[in-house]
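Treating backbone geometry as a discrete language has practical consequences that deserve illustration. Part of our work consisted of pairing the sequence of a single chain with a tokenised description of its backbone. What the numbers capture is local backbone geometry rather than side-chain detail. For completeness, the protein is quoted in full, as a sequence line and a line of structure tokens:
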Amino acid sequence: MDLRSSPLLTDLYQLTMLDGYFEAAMEETAVFEFFVRKLPDSRNFLMAAGLEQLIEFLENLQFTKEELQWLADSGRFRSDFVDYLAGLRFTGDVDAMLEGTLFFADEPILQVVAPLPQAQLIESRLINILHLQTMLVSKAARCMLAAPEGSLLVDFGMRRAHGADAALYAARASYLAGFAGTATVYAGPAFGIPLYGTMAHSFIQAHARETDAFETFARAQPDNVILLIDTYDTEAAAEKVVQLAPRLQADGIAIKGVRLDSGDLAEHARKVRKILDAGGLDQTVIFASGDIDEHKLADFENQSAPISGFGIGTRLDTSSDAPYLNCAYKLTEYAGQARRKRSEGKEMLPGRKQVFRHYDNGIMSSDTIAREGEEPGGEALLQPVMRGGKRVGRRPTLAESREHAARQLATLPAPLRGLGPASYPVHVSNALKELTEAVDRFVTDQARQ
């Protein structure tokens, strides 16, 4: 089985519900939407990501013979239902915010219009795909905003990501947000993301002399000489780099940079900068890593630390301060009738919707969630991406989505760019409020019958 494309990568209740829909012949058109109920306390905004992987999944949705046989052998489902699943494909429509678009609580990021069984079956995997990259790209975007101007950010977090997919998609999401690249090699052939890497402390330790380790690495990788200098004594290692440089320069090898990975990075960077400059290595940059996040990046900016680039690892790839989003994929219409969930603390808006963004001198000023067909002015954020189960138009490149994300961040109001709490106005149109009241009256009347 191909895990990423298998429809069996789902919750059991999706299949048991489909069995019920099949029994009752419920195949009318349903509308579902994906949204985030509440932003994490540490987030002033979120950024959409994962749409490309979702479209690939939907376009290829199909049970294999082996999967159908497994379902039949499980004893849970009747043979006629398994036969029905054999012919199931996604034939619906999808409207979505493009990858890199900023959004806020309760705004539909994606809307699915399809026969009820199709729209239901995809729920678990859809959330799984969109949740991860949206969570990670939003963390990466905060790092981009907090980093010292002109600094280079690289994803360093594969080893502590929660599995292979998380590592790969962290590389993609961080690049989408504006990172220069990643240390995760597979992201190169998979997505064309630039790769960055230096060396580990074990390379230094494996050599009898630190200088020998530096020289061996430099001659093995003459175009990528970035030396890790904090294995033993950071400042002493910087002196060794200065002493080694002329011997390498004689063979046309330049030391591009040194990396710091422990201790007071800002203080070490100041001392190392002085040593490098005094030794004629004023063009050799300082790169830092080690539990760095947006808060540390802001501290480096405030301290004017002489660091040119940063490897952002664990705290990015696990989104350590906000490791999940309170997101949902819910039914908002079935068979032409608007529906809404009214569970305590989980109320939602009914019907088909559009989100409109308003600007003031090119800066985001407010959003309006409106009923489909309304025209409250502003930019419509939900765009057609699939019709009849097929992609609309050509697939955007990751570079194009990255440019869109950069334009989005450039429109962000100043209070939302900081790390402190800030709010953004999101309005609900009067027509949508009226629809909500009408749905509630209908539900109440039905309950009394």
Summary: The chain has two domains: 12-136+323-448, 144-317. The chain is about 40% helix and 20% strand.
